[in-house]
Amino acid sequence: MNKVFSTADDAIRDIEDGAMLMFGGFGLCGIPENLIDALVRKGLREQMKDLHTISNNMGVDGFGMGRMLEAEMISSHIGSYVGENKLLEESVLAGKLDLTLVPQGTLAERIRAGGAGIPAFYTPAGVGTLVAEGKESREFDGKMYLLERWLRADFALIKAWKGDRMGNLLYRKTARNFNPMMATAARITIAEVEQLVEPGEIDPDHVMTPGIYVQRIVVGEKHEKRIERRTVRKG
After folding, report:
1. Domain span at residue 100?
2. Is 49 in contact with 77 (CB distance < 8 Å)?
3. From the DSSP assignment, how many helices (H) and strands (E) are in the chain?
4. 163-184: per-residue pLDDT in tens?
5. What CATH number does residue 56 fall under?
6. Residue 97 in 3-state DSSP?
7. Going by fewer Cβ within 10 Å, which terminus of the chain is more open, N or C?
8. Where do runs of H (alpha helix) occur along the chain?
């Protein structure tokens, strides 16, 4: 089966307003920037205003998911870290966006659980904090834990370094964060890759996401690989 799409626009063509979307990556590393750009183009054409997103970060102003914020396409977001996006702060304070913050490890495990078919699990993260409000708690071996539910999505938009036509994927370094687990937790997974190869060219021992989890694959037109926050030592 050939899962390759010729353009990012074609790969995301059936994402509709109201969909729940996962976006892979960590900071600006390993984000599906070309798929995001295609989604923004579609959103502007179709006046999409009610997307629900799940990602660790929310991009930065003018790049990545920050472009979706500028287009006012997102009505709710579940994530862990939002500190690099001023527009997100303004949108939340103005009541334009519903934001749910989740401890990073809990976010990762909720997504992994969604892919593994585990509807809920207990974790000590957040006990005694605002995170615990409204959640069931239980004691195990003298320690309190919170019940957290899985996270699943209609579409997962992810990024890999290399992929073959069957959808087998290989990530590099920090870009591996969140992408593999999101690939398993969505009804349709769309993978953007830097390199597309023939089946068999990726060593089976190196495959990080098996093609069974990937429905569509597209080669990204450009990859900027920005630095989220540049820090240099003072001379």
Report:
1. 8-122+151-219
2. no
3. 6, 11
4. 999 999 999 999 999 999 999 9
5. 3.40.1080.10
6. coil
7. C
8. 8-11, 33-46, 65-70, 86-93, 104-116, 179-184
C-alpha span between 77 and 155 (Å, rounded): 14
Of 2-11, 111-120, 195-204, 224-233, the poorest mean pLDDT is in 224-233
Say if 225 falls within a structural domain: no
Kindly calculate the radius of gyration of the chain based on its CA atoms and give it in whole angstroms. Answer: 18
User: Could you tell me if residue 205 is inside a domain?
Assistant: yes
Beta bridge partners of 137: 146
Report d(CA 171, CA 24) in Å as an integer: 11
Cβ 11 vs Cβ 5: under 8 Å: yes
Asked, for residue 142, whether it belongs to a domain, the answer is no
Residue with tokens 């495990």: 109
Residue given tokens 């687990």 in the structure block? 181
**Torsional sign, CA 81, 86, 88, 91:** positive
Domain count, the chain: 1
Residue 57 in any domain: the answer is yes
